[in-house]
Amino acid sequence: MSSTTIQMENNPAFARIPPWVKAKLRPIALEKIQQVYNWVENECIPAERIYKAQLTGDRWKTPAIIHDLRKKAKAQGLWNLFLPNHFVESPGLTNLEYSCCAEIMGRVYWAAQTMNCHAPETGNIELLAKYCTPEQKKRWLHPLMNGDMSSAYSMTEPNVASSDATQIGISMEITDKEVIINGRKLYGNCQYNPEMQLFILMGCSDPNNPNPWNRHTTLVVPANTPGLKQVRNLTIMGYDWAPEGHGEYLYENVRVPKENIILGPGRAFEIAQGRLGPGRIHHCMRLIGQAERAYELALIRCSDPHKKPREKLIGEFDSNIERIADMRMTIDAMRLVVLNAADTMDLHGNKAGRFAIAQSKIMVPNALLKVIDEAMQMYGGQGLTQHTPLPEIWTYARFVRVADGPDAAHRHQVGREQMKTANGFRERAEGYAKRYRELCQKWGVEVEEFVGII
């Protein structure tokens, strides 16, 4: 496919992309967006029921159709598209350009997996690419990028408030040759799936360090390490999310080589921040696509000639016309929030973009939960069953409110940052008051004193 032949006007692959974003898309991005659109529309959406049927045979084995699609996607160059272009391993897209691809991927929950662009792989691959030594990359990064295995990120714990990551307490005793690990973890992908072969684990290696931000270490734990046991699968809103799922884990004297430490002892927070920024935004990118799918299903229901209460199409009722309008405007507004965050990361880096990232993480899941809920409502009782993908889409949106940190923590972060600007606004207000008094004197107007500054 020649990117020079791709026309964005009236092309459904580019229909929802705002003009200011289209102006920034390079030829490579135009080509990949079109490819991803064709892939999801022609290979993924029609195969949703095949995936479900194959999964019933073995809940913890990746369906054969996924392996087949991964081979095809890789051959077409639809592989690892998420890795930003400042990495040598990157296929070359910016965060903004990838956002346009990720939204399309989000139309089917597992579509990103067919392109090796799914969580937690995206965050883990970026972490390994950013912080690992060449030898560590050879052992872990390259197999993950090649799709030879999958991985898990293990941070959350059951017995502490993990939203304050300084409380993470799983014990890591670092000796001359190895690290000995004891404790419990939640949410790492399920060990039941044999493709899941390594955990990236954050734990407490120096509990007495006076600086709480230097107490923790990140390292790689092979999934088959003796002493590491999956206690159970954790269901999410009643779904097991097989074949990847989420697990509860017990570490009992788990021993790994010291060279499995990433970056160095005590540097876990530096690593976590580097990982979570892009990961948080990837969830939101895909969620826009999920919401678009729910919106389309709502339109289909509204125009179904077999569903005519009181001899009217569902979409002919004023209340539903207004629902559709609100859904459309909400999705478009949330897309702008996500694209702004992606562009900010491209222009100024992940650290500088943390406000926009947090803004996305707070606003997008909350807003789109309402959109998906309205679509479910239009389907009535069927909207709560497996007759449509809506219940799973809604559950994913609800999960994203917690994934990579609860939105309450992000709101607190945003609020703290904004409070730092208060003194500047006070000084500005005092300047207004001073200038007001000068103008009163100039024009002979009596000064009116206020209780506040102005």
From TrEMBL:
Domain Acyl-CoA dehydrogenase/oxidase C-terminal per the UniProt entry, residue ranges: 269-417
Q: Which cofactor does it need?
A: FAD
InterPro entries from the xrefs? Acyl-CoA_dehydrogenase, Acyl-CoA_Oxase/DH_mid-dom_sf, AcylCo_DH-like_C, AcylCo_DH/oxidase_C, AcylCoA_DH/ox_N, AcylCoA_DH/ox_N_sf, AcylCoA_DH/oxidase_NM_dom_sf
Q: Which GO terms describe its molecular function?
A: acyl-CoA dehydrogenase activity; flavin adenine dinucleotide binding
**What keywords are assigned to this protein?**
FAD, Flavoprotein, Oxidoreductase
One GO cellular-component annotation of the UniProt record comes to: cytoplasm
- Biological process GO terms, please? fatty acid beta-oxidation using acyl-CoA dehydrogenase
Query: Could you tell me which Pfam families the record lists for this protein?
Result: Acyl-CoA_dh_1, Acyl-CoA_dh_N
User: What region holds the Acyl-CoA dehydrogenase/oxidase N-terminal domain?
Assistant: 35-148
Write down the superkingdom of origin: Eukaryota
Instruction: Please name the PANTHER family in this protein's record.
Output: ACYL-COA DEHYDROGENASE_OXIDASE C-TERMINAL DOMAIN-CONTAINING PROTEIN (PTHR48083:SF11), MEDIUM-CHAIN SPECIFIC ACYL-COA DEHYDROGENASE, MITOCHONDRIAL-RELATED (PTHR48083)
The record's similarity note reads: Belongs to the acyl-CoA dehydrogenase family.
What name does UniProt use for this protein?
Answer: Acyl-CoA dehydrogenase family member 11
